[in-house]
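Section 5: illustrative case.
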């Protein structure tokens, strides 16, 4: 193999590896979601396929739950404490999240959606 071809392959491989490393360390998106009696604010969150999405969850009044079955997520949201949940969507679609700790009449309406774009 001549030296020019070897050098070109070496430089091309290094550039490709650097590009993959930069893509892998992309910080992703953080979205703050506040839970309060019977609602999440905001109740609609947008994300993108392959981009990490971190929900920063807080409660304004009492313990609430956060469940998103399609992503295998289930956690408590405790007042005066920040709960962080990170996912990386692998497919586009609309996915529901909801409270699974009873908080009174109206609890069944405490839900939101994650819209993942391709």
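Designed sequence:
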């Amino acid at each position: 193999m001549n030296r020019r071809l070897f050098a070109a392959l070496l430089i091309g491989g290094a550039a490709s590896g650097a590009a993959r490393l930069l893509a892998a360390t992309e910080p992703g998106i953080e979205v703050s979601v506040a839970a309060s009696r019977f609602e999440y604010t905001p109740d609609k969150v947008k994300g993108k396929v392959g981009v990490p999405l971190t929900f920063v969850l807080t409660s304004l009044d009492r313990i609430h739950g956060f469940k998103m079955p399609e992503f295998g997520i289930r956690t408590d949201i405790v007042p005066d404490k920040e709960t962080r949940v990170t996912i990386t969507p692998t497919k586009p679609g609309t996915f529901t999240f909801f409270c699974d700790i009873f908080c009174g009449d109206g609890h069944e309406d405490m839900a939101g959606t994650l819209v993942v774009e391709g």
